[in-house]
Amino acid sequence: HSPLRALYRCVCEKVVKVLRGKVCVRRTHAYIFSECTHGQAESVLATFDLYSKKHASFSIGPEKGVFLDEVIRREAPLRVLELGMHCGYTSVRILRLLPAFGKLLTAEMDPLTAEKGEEILLVAGFKNSQFQVLPCSSAEAISSLASHLGEDQLDLVVMDHDPEQYLPDLLVLQRENLLSKHSVLILNQVVKAGAQAVLEYLTTKPHSYTVCQQVKDMLEVRCHMDREES
Ligand SMILES: C[S@@+](CC[C@H](N)C(=O)[O-])C[C@H]1O[C@@H](n2cnc3c(N)ncnc32)[C@H](O)[C@@H]1O
């Protein structure tokens, strides 16, 4: 990994980004809707991956997707919160690995995106009893969690919304006692400047959080909230 090679890769990525243009929710949705086999989650994911090869996309993609799959298979979460659904790629990855009595709550701030993303989850064959799309900001979604979870806590939280929001949202989840000693956090886009605050916070709380492993810019963090801070 020489600095020259890293610079070359960075320039290539920037050029590809410019050539691909901006992420378009309507175009992404239309492509997935018309090209995938309805009712088959794996086909929906493969179609997203195909789309991302040719167009600008926010999807986490297959490499980070497999990393997330491994965490879900290992932890077998029942209550999952996703912040930043976009068109539903990550939601589909999560839902296909949840047991029938598991539940995904997913927040998406942009109303059109929330509507299109929800449609993709239905196209993939999931039922409304398995997920709830919260068309609001992460902060509003978190403040409404008690009404969805009752006494339950979150087993898995996936943050892929606005890195500036990661720390404030984590602090509220913590304060509202929504995380347990078994909870796992997945943070995407941790190389973005906005994520610096949450990374610094996590390192100052070694008795509450352990940063476990990372693939690309996605990080797994384990919670052990029952231990006292020293
Ligand atoms: C990078 S995309 C998520 C991609 C998704 N994980 C996937 O793989 O398809 C980020 C999404 O978060 C949404 N978002 C940004 N800030 C948010 C916030 N504060 N609350 C809720 N959603 C937010 C954006 O509208 C966008 O759709």
Explain this structure:
With 230 residues, the chain is of the alpha/beta class. The chain has helices at 3-20, 25-35, 41-54, 61-75, 89-95, 111-123, 138-143, 145-149, 163-175, 196-203; strands at residues 79-83, 103-107, 131-134, 154-159, 179-187, 209-215, 218-223. A 7-stranded mixed beta sheet has the order 3-2-1-4-5-7-6, with helices on both faces. α2 packs across α3 and α4 runs parallel beside α5. The chain starts with a helix and ends in a 7-residue tail after the last strand. The structure holds S-adenosylmethionine (SAM). Residues 58-60, 83-84, 86-87, 89-90, 107-110, 113, 137-138, 160-162, 165 line the site of S-adenosylmethionine (SAM).
Helix content: 40-55%
CATH topology: Rossmann fold
Beta content: 15-25%
The main sheet comes to: 7 strands, mixed
Which value, in Å, is the CA radius of gyration? 18 Å
| Broad shape | globular
Structural class: alpha/beta
What is the strand arrangement across the widest sheet? 3-2-1-4-5-7-6
CATH class: Alpha Beta
What is the number of E strands? Answer: 7
Stretches where pLDDT is under 50 for at least 5 consecutive residues are: none
What's the helix count?
Answer: 10
How far apart are the first and last residues' alpha carbons, in Å?
Answer: 39 Å
Number of domains: 1
Tell me which CATH architecture applies here. Answer: 3-Layer(aba) Sandwich
Q: If you average the pLDDT, what whole number results? A: 94
Order of helices and strands: HHHHEHEHEHHEHEHEE
Family: Belongs to the class I-like SAM-binding methyltransferase superfamily. Cation-dependent O-methyltransferase family.
InterPro entries: SAM-dependent_MTases_sf, SAM_O-MeTrfase
EC number: 2.1.1.6
Enzyme class: transferase
